[in-house]
Every structure is written in C-alpha cells, then in structure tokens.
Amino acid sequence: MSNPHKGRTGIERIIRAAGYSVAGIQAAYRGESAFRQEFWLAVVMLPAAFWLGRDWVEVALLAGSVILVLIVELLNSAIEAAIDRISFELHELSKRAKDIASAAVMLSLLLCAAIWLAALWQRLGAAA
Length: 128
Hints:
Blueprint lengths: L9 H22 L1 H20 L3 H31 L5 H34 L3
Helix pairs in contact: 1-2, 2-3, 3-4
C-alpha cells in the first residue's frame, strides 16, 4: 500500500512543496514568539551582513549563521508541536526531546553571536 500523499511528481510536487514550506513559516511566525523575534533580527542582520562582510566568504558566514538560527528554531518548533500532538502530559522523554531541541537553538544562537562578534571586532575593533 502506497502513501496517497506521495503520488505527485514534477512541477506539481515542487509547487505543493513550496506551498507547504510557506505554510510552515507562517505557522511558526504566528505561533512562536521566539521565531518572530529571530525573524525580525534576521531582517536587520541579513542586509548588515553585506555591509560587514569584506568578501563573499564573510558575507556567507554572517548570513548563513543567521539563517541557521531560523532553521534550527523551525526544527525546534516542529519537535515541540509533534510532542504536544502526542500528549500534554509531563513525561521524561518529552522533556528530554524538548530540552535537546532547545539546546540546539541555543548553540545556533551562540555560533551566530560568535561569528558576528568576530566580524565586528575585525571590522571595527581593529580600526581603533
């Protein structure tokens, strides 16, 4: 027995997949205050990456670290939603999964901050 939701191919599959992705971003934006905060920081930081970065590698690191935070936050939100779908009951495995996903967000934020601070130091601190 095949999955009835997996029968699409070609351009129809791509269009539907893009629609699901947009719906996911909208759901995260509406339902997750952390994602909204990180989204608006990204709106400011992504253009700043082009000013701060001295070449395409630096711009890619700066912008990529910001996008990585959004990606990890989306995965964290998906894990939380899946666990909440199963049960709101407090359970050690549910807590562990949510804590691990939260730790992944924290590590992505720390990585982003380290990359940006290093770039700022190189661009502004070294000039002083």
